[in-house]
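Entry: Ppx/GppA phosphatase
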Amino acid sequence: MAPRRPKGAGAFPKPVESPVPSRPDPDALYAALDLGTNSCRMLIAQPKGGGFHVVDSFSKSVQLGTGLERTGRLSRASMARTVQALRICQQKLKRNKVQRMRLVTTEACRRARNARDFIRQVQRETGLALEIIQPEEEARLAVISCAPLVSVKTEQLLVVDIGGGSTELVWIDLSSVPRQDRPAAIMRLHAGFHPPESPFPAAKVVDWISVPLGVATLRDQFSDVEDDSARFALMSWFFEENLANFAPYKDEQLREGFQIVGTSGTVTTVAASHLGLKRYDRTKVDGLRMTSDQIDKVIRGYLDLGPAGRRRDPRIGEDRQALIMSGSAILQALLRVWPTDRLSVADRGLREGLLYAQMSADGVLEGGVV
């Protein structure tokens, strides 16, 4: 199960435009749905300035990828759970009269032999047309969602998106971009990792990789190991082995001007644990910077709790206690490979990237991002 890259740089289907495209109503609503290996999540939002205002949202654990590692297929129970969740999404889209939307699915449907049958079932039973996106586009959307968190002092940026079925890493060189333009240069990657020539200063994608190991698939690889600490160590080293072909892997990086941004439920849960939150608060987590020592302390605390203690922890809970350890193993491997003083926490990801990309392409965001 080797990490995958596209055969051609920026090889995406080109959108078909009408002969006379009309400017969208600035009050129009946009929707983005992300059906992953574990969760179904949707945002409905309205453009506002250089960003957007969320009007409605949905998030539910559907565990679509349960059993996929063993059978290569989506199970009937997983598909039934997911269709029920998608019915709720369809009702929200209809109630809000949303016309502009992208509804995507990722690793589980990329790998499942019966994915096309499932997508036809979803269309038949909910009216929603799901689109399977490829790893490069998934990575690109995660990157642009994090653009507002990029420091103007950042010259080398690593964005990490730890999903349920895969983990995307993108290394970006911003050293030739003027400081004040760096977040906007990241946003312009909505046109592709290798966009056409532009008068604007460009962010250079040095390398990217999609490792087919996320919190669910990595956990399933070592489900036969009973000892909690041994399983964690094996998962971390196994994930690191899968980074060997990533270009910056062996290079020693200067800490000055280097930023890692992590986007995932793992990263936000670790941040909530570090802050000691009794109830999750996005405003305190999104944009938080954690030191590697603080992250290590939280992960050691998870290991000390053990499975039973993690189930009782309100920040983790019954559903995520096993997943948080596979996600923490990935996070620990990354900090071991690229020692850094701080990691920026992003409570954002594919949905936000989908919204930014749609709105940027339509020209409804202020600030000149094109």
